[in-house]
Amino acid sequence: MRIDALLFDVDGTLADTEEAHRIAFNAAFERAGLDWRWQPREYRRLLEVTGGKERIRGYIGALPVGDGERRRLLERVSALHEDKTRIYTRIVRDGGVRLRPGVERLMREALAAGCRLAIATTTSAVNVQALLEATLGARGLDWFSAIACGDQALRKKPAPDIHQLALARLGIEPARAVAIEDSLNGLRAARAAGLWTLVTPNFWTEGADFEREGAGLVLPHLGEPALPLAGEPGHRLRHAAWLRFDELTRAALSHRVDAAAGVMQA
User: Which of 9, 16, 161, 182 is labelled catalytic?
Assistant: First the structure.
């Protein structure tokens, strides 16, 4: 058996986009004449809700306003989110967001080994395109054999729909793929789809017990020769101070073998 595909989340996994999202939300609110200002720690809590429109609706639902005003605000959610998306994509295309350490290196290693790449994200297709083109070049979309976005599935993470859609488009079983996520909702979604999952938390998602939730491996980032992971090799990694594609696949396949052996013994 081999690993045939890596399924990447986008926001927080490929790049630390959440600050750009937060800025874009606040700019859209200001342009709409609303006095809402999402501060970093508040936004970290709001990220427990996946999906931008869902996040706005959840925020409105908690506001101390009357039912009539709440309905009026809820009617504005789509327009607010559309404006926020325009602002966000402009920030990204202007170079305001970079890939996290090791992401491009790992993707290149995977492609060189004949492994395909896919996107499994709750963000919109336009946001994905903007990020990939800004960070990987005009043909950034071509790196990926399948792209599954939040507006293409019935349920968002932590439901497994996005990952299942990506797997279906790739035409492979979960046992032949690895998910890379940064959040608890992403991990739960990937695990529900049957995927061995690597988690690389960040400021917005740190603090959860990812290993208890079934993460196969948890690292602060993927690492680079110029930006090695502290304590590696020797703590979680065996061969280098950055996660190489061969070690990632070896860990995922080892888990599959151990799990199969456990079933046989039972």
Answer: 9
